[in-house]
Amino acid sequence: MTTTTSLTSSTSGECTAARAYLRLLAAVRAVLDDPLQASLAAPLLAAPIAEADEALRAAGLAGNEREFLHLVAAQALAQRPHT
Known about the structure:
Structural class: mainly alpha
Distance between the termini: 24 Å
């Protein structure tokens, strides 16, 4: 499976779920990179976690981690700046 194939064969909901997951990862990194915010992690991450959970359910990907992580990888590669 190539990145192009993964993205073109993915539904809009699947791409939305992958982007929500990538936003969740960015939020986790931002919160946990700052030791002063680590104790606030749960309240700060509640909204991104809920968004990712809902997007997974809506796309029918809840419980299908392998397929979902392929989509996340393809989405992350698509979002990388070209050098």
